Amino acid sequence: MWSDGIFNPSIEADEILMGRPNFDLMAERGFAGTMDFPSSLYYEQIMEQYPDAKFILTVRSDPEIWFRSWDTLSKTITQPTRYWQFMAHVQQYNNYLRWLFSVVNRDTKYLNCDMPFPDQMKEQAIASYEEHNRRVREMIPQDRLLEYNVKQGWAPLCQFLEIESCPTTAFPKTNSARSLQIQTISAMAIPLTITLFVLFYVFSCVFQRTTNQSVLGWLGMKRLQILEYLTGREMMVQKRRAERAAAKKKGR
Q1: Which of 101, 129, 172, 193 has the most CB atoms around its CB within 10 Å?
Q2: What is the pTM of this model?
C-alpha cells in the first residue's frame, strides 16, 4: 500500500507526494496502533479518521540530540542496502528511504539520486523536526496527546494509556544503531541464503541426471583422488630422497 500509493509515485513524479494511506487496511487486520515513520507523519488523517485515538509525541532534550540520532540511523540503514539493490525487497526499502529522506530534509534530490544517498541536511532536517512537533501540539487536543521523553520511563505511558498493571522492569533500550544494522543485514542475508539453497538444489538435480551421481558423491570421489595423488606424490618424493641418500652414501 505504501509503495504503490506513495513512495513509487513520488519517485516517478520526482515530487514529494504524501497521498492518503489506507489505515483501515491495518485496522481491519487487528492492529490497534501504529508508530514511527511513515505513519507518524499522518497524525492529522489518523485524528480525523479515528476520533478516539490517542497520540504520543516522543521528544528529545534538544534538536541537536535528535539530529545526531537521526543522522546515525540514516547512515546505519543505508550503508548495507546500497550493495543489495538487485534484491526486490531491498529496492522497495530503498524507495521508502528516498521518499522519507526527501520529506524530512524537504528536498527532492533524494528521490532519484545515485547511491549512496547524500548526507542528511542538518538545518532542513531540524526545521522539519521542530515544525512537526509544533504542528502536533497545535492540532491534537491536549486530552488526547502525551508529550513524552523515554527517560521518563513507564509511568507516564501507563497513566496515559490507562494501563493498570504497569511494568516494574527497567525501561528497555533498543533500536540502537548496531542492532538496526544487524537487522538490516539479516533481512537481506536470509532471502539470499534461501535463493542460494534453491539454486544448489536445482544444480544438484541436473548434475545427478547428467552424471548419474550426486554432487556430494562426486566431491567425495574427487577428494579421494586428490588424497591419493598427494599421497603418491609424497611417497615419490620420499623415494627420491632415499635414492639420493643411498647414492651419496655409496659415493663416499
Answers
A1: 101
A2: 0.68
